[in-house]
Design brief:
- This protein has 560 residues and is of the alpha/beta class.
- The protein is 30% helix and 20% strand.
- The chain folds into three domains: 152 residues; 111 residues, no CATH class; 255 residues, Rossmann fold.
- It has a nine-stranded mixed beta sheet, sandwiched between helices. A six-stranded mixed beta sheet has the order 1-2-3-4-5-6, with helices on both faces. Strands 8-9-10 form a three-stranded antiparallel beta sheet.
- The protein starts with 7 loop residues before the first helix and ends in a 9-residue tail after the last strand.
């Protein structure tokens, strides 16, 4: 049999009825998506396919599918076991992990139209992946019908299929899924265990890294031994809380179901990184305090992903990072190169919290975490004519040196989620009246104009004027891009927009309303007038929805 006479939509329907009757089907930007509802993990993607009527070039269909996945950032979601391309006479399969690395390369332009098979990017990717695409398994409906059905049955249900690949970029998000699905099935009193320094993340790390990794075992708090966990006595003082080993309450059922989906261990180059970043998995017990704005981890991770896309995956080695509105430091949780990381906040209590986190493994130097009022304090030591220090700056000396050096400033990323308070208004129920009256307000009120009412605008203007050439990577409302109150601000703030996204404001603690909060990256060393920017749009769950343009205006007469 073949379906060569069918147009595309009837073809997809026929393929679903013939080969995927036991699964759920949908089709939109990706032509053909096969999923099933997992009782623990929800809707799971099993297969993404490109469909073509008649007879087609399978390799080109795969490239179109890959460009579609990249264009709409579908690789940031739960990815499928298999990619597929089919037409009226045949169907081909390729494990997703074969091409997963493509989406993290910096030299691929995923903004092109995926269906344009003659574009430079399409032909470049076709050449690059040609050898990998040769590995695709192809079945013809007429002569391989039984084999095709057997392949689908085996590979969409077998745990031997290519599983979701774990790497340093996603091991934290997978931990949260593990915590919901597996944690409660382990035979342990979590409250008692926590008092002895054992946390659920130690069991997750045991799951990830115990298998065949002899060199890693000594670094783990717990080790998985097939159907039970064994504790590393050198690492813990368990006392009478729990025995030297513990098993599962459900005969390991939830554990097996979860790890049937994910591939472990991760690649060897990620092992040490994951162990060093145990603190990312620690419940920091950060409670809402007066005036505090906690950046949700989902957006911290997404922002770091965008920094990596913009400056390359090794950017931490080349750039300095300063969160100058640091709060309790959660915005810096993903960074590893602590010699290049700085954090400041005006609240001494926040400093104490971060120092406590450092004692529990947070990857920061204590002397790089300091109390500093960014809108009032001076950057540099005040000295007399003879070079003697009259008044010492609160900034560490090495950060002062970075600010004084033009080349180093261009390698400084100001990574912040500044306060969103507006003069005379409440923010999250906290009365912020009078917050405008800072030394920075007095210094730049003529430049700021009406935008001086916005506290974050005061942060931005000092960064722009006094840390000249730095990278500004900030969460904020988008008023400074398109509000008429910021027309005067935009006359002075000229920078090159690099990359960014928006998400609903209500996903942030203490922020209410249906307006968007954006994370935008600016190169202030390149003076460009803000005219139009295009931002990726994510919903509250981190799912990519599309792109949206924002336009700036030079006068107050425009349709809102």
């Amino acid at each position: 049999m073949n379906f060569i006479h069918l147009s595309e939509e009837p073809l997809k329907s026929k393929i679903k009825d013939t080969y995927f009757t036991k699964f759920s089907y949908s089709g939109s930007k990706i032509d053909f998506t096969i999923t099933y509802k997992h009782k623990n993990l929800g809707e799971i993607n099993l297969l993404w396919a490109e469909a073509k009527k008649g007879e087609s070039d399978i390799k080109k269909s795969f490239i179109q599918l890959i460009l579609t996945i990249g264009k709409y950032k579908f690789y940031t979601e739960q990815t499928p076991n298999l990619l597929c391309a089919f037409d009226g006479i045949k169907m081909a399969f390729l494990p997703f992990i074969k091409i997963q690395e493509v989406f993290y390369q910096n030299d691929i332009d995923f903004s092109v139209t995926p269906s344009n098979h003659k574009s430079e990017q399409f032909l470049k990717l076709l050449k690059q992946l040609n050898t990998i695409l040769d590995e695709a398994q192809i079945f013809y409906y007429e002569k391989n019908d039984e084999e095709l059905k057997a392949f689908i049955k085996e590979n969409l249900t077998s745990e031997n299929i290519s599983k979701f690949k774990i790497d340093k970029n996603n091991f934290v998000s997978i931990y949260y899924k593990w915590s919901k699905s597996v944690k409660d099935s382990i035979s342990i009193d979590w409250d008692l265990a926590k008092k002895s320094g054992i946390i659920d993340a130690d069991f997750y790390l045991a799951d990830l890294l115990s298998k065949d990794n002899v060199s890693i075992v000594k670094k783990l708090f717990a080790v998985l031994k097939k159907d039970y966990y064994e504790f590393n006595e050198k690492k813990t003082e368990l006392g009478s809380i729990i025995a030297e080993k513990t098993g599962f309450k459900d005969h390991q059922k939830a554990h097996k179901e979860f790890w049937a989906i994910y591939e472990r261990p991760p690649r060897e180059e990620f092992w040490d990184y994951i162990i060093k970043r145990r603190d990312l998995l620690v419940d920091q017990d950060i409670r809402e305090r007066k005036g505090a704005f906690f950046t949700p981890r989902i957006w911290v991770d997404k922002a770091c992903e965008y920094l990596s896309k913009t400056f390359g995956e090794d950017y931490e080695d080349e750039y300095y990072i300063w969160d100058l509105a640091g709060g309790t430091g959660n915005l810096l949780a993903n960074f590893t190169n602590k010699k290049n990381i700085f954090c400041s906040t005006l609240d001494k209590a926040d400093i104490d919290v971060i120092h406590e986190r450092i004692k529990n493994g947070a990857n920061l130097f204590e002397n790089h975490v300091f109390e500093f009022d960014f809108l009032n304090d001076e950057f540099f030591d005040e000295v007399d004519d003879k070079g003697n220090i009259i008044k010492k700056s609160k900034l560490p000396l090495n950060l002062q040196e970075i600010l004084k050096d033009e080349n180093k400033r261009k390698k400084l990323i100001i990574f912040i989620n500044p306060p969103y308070a507006e003069v005379g208004l409440s923010s999250g129920g906290i009365n912020k009246t009078g917050v405008q009256y800072s030394s920075i307000y007095d210094k730049y009120k003529d430049i700021l104009g009406k935008s001086s009412r916005e506290l974050f605008a005061q942060f931005f203007i000092r960064i722009y004027c006094e840390i000249e050439g730095a990278i500004l990577a900030s969460f904020s409302k988008l008023k400074y891009v398109n509000s008429t109150n910021f027309i005067k601000f935009r006359e002075s703030f000229k920078a090159k927009f690099l990359k960014g996204f928006i998400t609903p404001a209500y996903t942030f603690d203490n922020v209410k309303g249906n307006f968007p909060i954006g994370f935008l990256i600016w190169d202030t060393s390149k003076k460009e007038e803000i005219k139009k920017i295009k931002l990726d749009v994510f919903n509250e769950n981190g799912n990519f929805l599309g792109k949206k343009n924002f336009f700036s205006y030079k006068n107050s007469l425009f349709i809102n």
